[in-house]
Amino acid sequence: MKKNKLLWALAGLPLLALAGCGSINVASSPAAGTSETGGTSSQPGQTSSSWSEINSAVSVPETSSAPVVDVEGDFSITTSDGTYAKNGSVYSITAAGTYTLAGELEGQILIEASEDDEVVLELNGVEITYGQDSPIKAVTAGKVEISAKKDTSNNVIDTRSVKTVDVETQGEGAISADCDLKLKGSGTLVVTGSYNNGVHTTKDLTIQKQTLYVTAPNNALKGKDSITMTSGDVTAISKNGNGLKSEATDLSSKSKQRGTITISGGTLLVDSCYDGIDAAYDLIVNEDNDESLATTITVKTGKNSKNSANYKSSTSAKGLKAANSIQLAAGTITVQASDDAVHANYGDTFESGGTGLGNVSVSGANLYVASGDDGVHADNTFTISNGVVVVSNAGEGIEANHLAFEGGSTYVYGTDDGINASKKINQTPTVVVSGGYLDVSIGTGDTDGIDSNGNFSMTGGFVVTRGGYGSSGGMSTGLDCDGTASITGGTFISFNGVEMTPTKGSNVLYAYYGTTGNQGGWGGGPGGGGPRWANTIASSNYKFSSGTYTLSGGSLSKTFKNEYAYSSFLIYSSELTTNTAYTLQNGSTTVLSWTQSSASVQIS
């Protein structure tokens, strides 16, 4: 991996320390045609105040300590419609009903109701500590709800030693259930796991409204069949495991696919030594809930975790991970990961039949990632149709077999290739740009802004891509394509050339400026005869220094930022027209000016 440097900057995102991966300093720069919901404007590439508004709201909080819970008084349990029995310090609930708990208990709440019974535990300022088994354990019930009442703080503390072998009679978490489990209420619940997981259920786990703070040696939150969060304020800390995890991949009795993690509202902070959110099937982030609450997710893994001393580089420390697909439709998501920040597998076999798709889609979320490996990795297909994706530091910025840029705004910096279409499945890799805004920068060395180990095609949208900066002498250009390359619509700009001359549509014109380097040529453009690397000349001769650039003329108006200097410029565009004057300005200084007198113009 090449030396990590930040090539470009975006408005408002704060400094994020990424141990082992340099620093992420996303400073001021205009965004490309974004709206407050992450969509694209009618003219991608234009400065938009909405970008600043989006980013000013983004923060990466330090992982806080658990809220202080001060519970006093003798323990009490009351119910008007249920039944329970007391045996020493163990309270056994044996029937459906609502049970109110208050005070301090050194003992256990054991639920042994009928399989169809619904049991509700109302926590009204309670602290339950137990070292023989799970402090709260549901052995049998149809459903258990644990409600933290408004204006109350509650503690559940597991004091067992860390699990070393499987013991069938022991509950797996501080809260452990063999039935559907729902955590709700507008109060606070602090769960401290010491044996294995924090909150564990073998069925479905649902979180609503509650302020929930969970720490555990293994998984902070585990819903074997599924996890659903619709609202609330959740902190999930894994000392030596995963933050959120599902496991089953079979079908329910109602033919519903198990293993999905869905987050559709609230604030979630995951601090995990290893994988942050690990879905056995799909990971879905949307805002499809009755309360219409915004979704904010922050994930820190590996070296970024507060428990980073436990991290081993041989173990997966991905941010968002799914065995089938990751669907990011809404919300603000920030990931700092030692491994891939976002990762979807292809080919995993499911109990329900079939295999994993390996797809990542962004259709409305604002996704900000930094990674010690790939920023976004889809074994099969990555698609952005709406929203914002910012990969501010990574090895490969976005890697997939197929990459489809249909809309939205995408900014990528990679120390290796920025966009990489590589053969992960038995299909020809492709990069297809049909809309939106794509801005790619890379480090020095043998790297490319866009690298397709198959084909590249562009039918619309706006792309600005760059080869490596500096005098590395490496084979580094804005576009490297092993198969076919075509541009039939939109605007494509490359600094430091391309390694294959694209074919173009009849409506697409081009212009180029090149500086002769020690390998000759003007940077690999039309008529360049193949690869040309013009970034080997002295930096004092670079034509295109860092700064904010505006390209204008006729109906064409684009704004973007270069963080470093480059030696050549190339534009293909269906917005270029003949007999029209164009200027490229760096700030108020005109860098290039030309008249598009024909289909091809070499700018002097």
Could you explain the architecture of this structure?
The protein is mainly beta and 604 residues long. It has 1 helix and 53 strands.
Give a quick precis of the structure:
1% of the residues lie in helices and 46% in strands. With 604 residues, the protein is mainly β.
Topology of this structure?
Layout: E1 16-17, E2 23-24, H1 49-56, E3 76-79, E4 84-87, E5 90-93, E6 97-106, E7 108-112, E8 118-130, E9 136-140, E10 143-148, E11 153-158, E12 173-177, E13 180-184, E14 188-192, E15 197-201, E16 204-207, E17 211-216, E18 221-223, E19 226-229, E20 233-238, E21 244-245, E22 260-263, E23 266-272, E24 277-279, E25 282-285, E26 295-301, E27 320-322, E28 325-328, E29 332-337, E30 342-344, E31 346-349, E32 355-357, E33 359-371, E34 376-393, E35 398-405, E36 409-414, E37 419-421, E38 430-433, E39 437-442, E40 450-452, E41 455-458, E42 462-466, E43 479-481, E44 485-487, E45 491-495, E46 503-504, E47 509-513, E48 547-553, E49 556-562, E50 569-573, E51 581-586, E52 589-595, E53 600-602
Parallel strand pairs: 5-7, 6-8, 7-9, 8-10, 8-11, 9-12, 10-13, 11-14, 12-15, 13-16, 14-17, 15-18, 16-19, 17-20, 18-21, 19-22, 20-23, 21-24, 22-25, 23-26, 24-27, 25-28, 26-29, 27-30, 28-33, 29-33, 30-34, 33-34, 34-35, 34-36, 35-37, 35-38, 36-39, 37-40, 38-41, 39-42, 40-43, 41-44, 42-45, 44-46, ...
Antiparallel strand pairs: 1-2, 3-6, 4-5, 31-32, 45-50, 47-50, 48-49, 48-51, 51-52
